[in-house]
Amino acid sequence: MIIMSKNNFSIKDRLKSFVYAYNGLKITWQEEHNFRIHCIAAILVILFSVLFQISRLEWIAVSISIGFVFVCELLNTSLENLADFVCQENNPKIKRVKDIAAAAVILSSATALVNGLIIFLPKIVSFCAANHIF
C-alpha cells in the first residue's frame, strides 16, 4: 500500500487555499467593526495618495503601513476567536493574551498614522498655503 505524502504539490489545493483566505477576509469583514474601519481608512489613504500624487517610495511606505495594520487586525481577530473557543469563561490569562494581541493592532495603527503624517502633512500644508486656506 502506497501512502501519499501531504507534501505533494497540487494546483487544486493551492487554489483552495485562496478560497479559504478569501473566506477569512469575508468573515472578518462581516464580524469585525474595527476591520471595516481600517478598510475605510485604507481607501481614504489611497485616495489621498492618488490626489497628492505621492512618490514611489511614499507608495511603498503607504502600502506597507496598510498591510501591517491589516495583518495585525487579522491575527488579533484569529487569536481572539481561538481564545474564545478554548476558554468560554472569563479567564485573566486569556484576557492578557487578547489584550496583548489588541496592543499589536494599536501599535501598527499608530505606526501607520505617523507614516501618514510624515507623508501627507507637508502636502496638505502646501496645498492650503497655495490656495490661501490658512
Brief rundown of the structure:
By secondary structure, the chain is mainly alpha-helical. It contains four helices and no strands. The termini are far apart.
Task: Please characterize this protein's 3D structure.
- The protein is mainly alpha-helical and 134 residues long.
- It contains 4 helices and no strands.
- The radius of gyration is 20 Å and the shape is extended.
- The mean pLDDT is 93.
Structural key phrases:
134 residues; mainly alpha; 4 helices
Main sheet: strands, sense, barrel: none
Multimer state? single chain
Poorly predicted spans: none
- Label the structural class: mainly alpha
Number of helices: 4
Q: Averaged pLDDT, please? A: 93
Helix content: over 70%
Order of helices and strands: HHHH
Write the layout of secondary structure elements.
Elements: H1 11-31, H2 33-51, H3 56-86, H4 92-130
Helix pairs in contact: 2-3, 3-4
